[in-house]
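User: I'm new to structure prediction. If I give you an amino acid sequence, what do you actually give back? Let's try with this one:
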Amino acid sequence: MESAHLLGSSKKRVKIHPHTVTAKYATHTPYSPQPGVHTHFPQPGDDGYDDAPSFEDFGSFLEETSDRKQLTEDGGEAGGRAAKGSGRGVGEQLASFGEASVSASRLTWVGLLGAALAHGSLIVLTRVSSERFSLGPLFLLLVRSIVQLAAVAVPLHRGENPFGPEGYRLRLLLYGIAYSLSLCCAYSSLTFVSPGNATTTWRLATTALSATLAFLLLEERLGLADGITIAAGLCGLGLVLLPAADESNTDSPTDPVVFWKGAFGWSLSALAGLWMALALVGYRSLKERVGVGTALFTVSWTGCLLTPASLALLQEGWSWPMSVPAWGLVLALVACSVLAFLGMTHALTRLHPALVSASQSLEVPIAMLLHLAVLPLAPSAPEVVGNVMVILSVGWLVAMKLLPSRGSSRRQREEYEEILDSPIK
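Assistant: Good question. You get back a string of structure tokens that encode the predicted 3D arrangement of the chain. For your 425 residues, that looks like this:
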């Protein structure tokens, strides 16, 4: 009864940080439970409920930090367990959290896999537009940025400022600039290197750098299993980049102009990866303040400013679509870019930036398969092995996230229940 009175006399607001567990108490009218009536637990919509971590957030927290045991011990030392009668209420909450978490996780990963498919289609559409209709990559980027300006309707419909909430507009602007610079560098590199090499280098640099920057800027760590899986995928991308036998065994002298053009193209692809990693980490820090629609509008209007500057620097000519199939390709390209952006950006609200980028490595084998359907050219052996490694690494990553072991799930639930029940003072 005494523990029930404590639950009724104060409302606990728990916040969990990778290194600390804090609590806030707000005193209100004491509540005395009636016989036969269960003690009230905070429900969705209650004041202060949003500060309590979800089960999925807690599980991710346990996986991404190395001090899980210390956290549990600190929670145990802070105070005794709540009354046994509250176990049923907490159990019901955990079951509800678990079902919602599994459903949300599946939706997130389905969106990521759909984004990878859209990215792979985007690579092939860009290449076909350039080879068959002489449409420059930067021109295509400018068209998609202009069309995507329609995303301003989303924040306006919700009554939000399309340039972001007050106090976060500078960070949102920097995010948009980083994202647009990444696209400009990536599309500019297509003028100097093949689309396959440019895309693979971009994705490899983005994944590796996003893991590093997330740790340095956000203190978000990858679990050991996640790190090993991502490293295997990166090795696969490295195999895809190996030159073919006929390219490596050539004895003809290399033209210095061709060499430096290629080096510049590779550098642009790597720089695009750096900018994209900064953009992913930047939005990860804004996930609770900026919606996906606002982010898309920010990327679009910054792209409308930076793409013409890139066109002027590279002196890429303007070439308008002159036929219905050409316009169809352009519209399909815009649709794929929007779908890819939505899937990636939504996933950033729940997953580590490196996991989001690693899942998009599927765009490389998808683009290879689609390209074989359009232009049947036999890939090299390292390219085939590398693409298989990418597929296996992403498949294993998805399996680990959606099919957790029972022991791990039970242990996380027990620790989560202890945090909720502990009278932290």
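You can read the tokens as a compact description of the fold. Here is one thing that stands out. Residues 1-59, 61-87 have pLDDT under 50 and may be disordered.
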